[in-house]
Amino acid sequence: MDALKHAIETNGTVLPGNILKVNSFLNHQIDPELMQQIGQSFADYFQKAGITKVLTVEASGIAPAVLTGLAMHLPVVFARKSKSLVVKDDVYSAKVYSYTKNTSNHIYVEKQFLDNTDRVLIIDDFLANGEATKGLIKITKAAGATVGGIGIVIEKTFQPGGAYLRDHDYDVLSLAKIASLDNQKVTFAD
Ligand code: G4P
Ligand code: NA
Ligand code: NA
């Protein structure tokens, strides 16, 4: 996606630890017009995948997920995060380890918002190690629903999440693929 690549090149900065900071359009301030194009790109690609619901995790997944749901005319559910285990019988939950923050979160979705008739499109802002996505897959399966696709705004292809998901036959569309952040420089994969 050219507009996204342009935004990354123009406004992205690279932090130590191979972190791409995109706070000016994705992770803090949000560019709604860019999000709309992102949502439309996911909608175009997954149009024939039989999707019934868009699923993401708070906070940064919500903007691209909502614009995807708008373009596809589908509801959007975001998993909530909790520091502690949510033990309630009306939620599906998963434990998600963050390598970036070196902490574990629990994420959960109320059972009323996912069921075995759903075919889910998982959306997230970043795909790095894939832990967040795996948590969303676990929740989807717990509901008896199926994963119809995975849409990622920015994939860091030098981390293992994308390869893991494709090896497990998920249809993953990443709108920007970053092959390297070495020497504080963004190198795209294609
Ligand atoms: P994973 O999500 O693929 O498992 O990767 P990881 O554990 O490394 O990431 C933990 C958090 O850091 C996630 O956000 C993820 O989106 C974010 N992240 C990973 N790599 C980058 C990066 O290069 N740049 C930025 N800006 N974020 C990155 P989160 O903890 O769910 O936070 P939130 O922003 O959604 O609240
Ligand atoms: Na994030
Ligand atoms: Na995220």
Overview of the molecule:
The longest helix is centred in the first third of the chain and has 15 residues, at 32-46. An 8-stranded mixed sheet has the order 5-6-4-3-7-8-9-10, with helices on both faces. The protein has a two-stranded antiparallel sheet with strand order 1-2. The protein has helices spanning 2-11, 23-27, 32-46, 62-72, 131-142, 161-167; strands at residues 13-15, 19-21, 53-57, 76-82, 91-98, 103-110, 119-127, 146-156, 172-180, 187-188. By secondary structure, the chain is of the alpha/beta class. Helix 3 (32-46) packs across helix 4 (62-72). Strand 5 and strand 6 (103-110) form a beta hairpin. It has 6 helices and 10 strands; from the N terminus they run αββααβαββββαβαββ. It has a single domain (2-188), classed as Rossmann fold. It is globular and about 45 Å long. Xanthine binds at residues 20, 27, 156. InterPro entries: PRTase-like, PRTase_dom, Pur/Pyrimidine_PRTase, Xanthine_PRibTrfase. It is an enzyme of class 2 (transferase).
**CATH fold annotation:** Rossmann fold
SS content category:
alpha/beta
Gyration radius over CA: 16 Å
- Could you give the count of β-strands? 10
The proportion of strand residues reads 25-35%
The average pLDDT value, as a whole number, equals 96
Q: Helix count, per DSSP?
A: 6
Order of strands, main sheet, comes to: 5-6-4-3-7-8-9-10
Report the top-level CATH class: Alpha Beta
Helical fraction equals 25-40%
Number of domains: 1
Largest sheet: 8 strands, mixed
Could you tell me which ligands this complex binds, including any ions or cofactors?
guanosine-5',3'-tetraphosphate, sodium ion
CATH architecture type: 3-Layer(aba) Sandwich
Strand/helix succession: HEEHHEHEEEEHEHEE
How far apart are the termini?
A: 11 Å
Give the overall shape, derived from the CA principal axes: globular
Catalogue the unreliable spans.
Answer: none
Catalytic activity: XMP + diphosphate = xanthine + 5-phospho-alpha-D-ribose 1-diphosphate
Subunit structure: Homodimer.
Family: Belongs to the purine/pyrimidine phosphoribosyltransferase family. Xpt subfamily.
GO molecular function: xanthine phosphoribosyltransferase activity
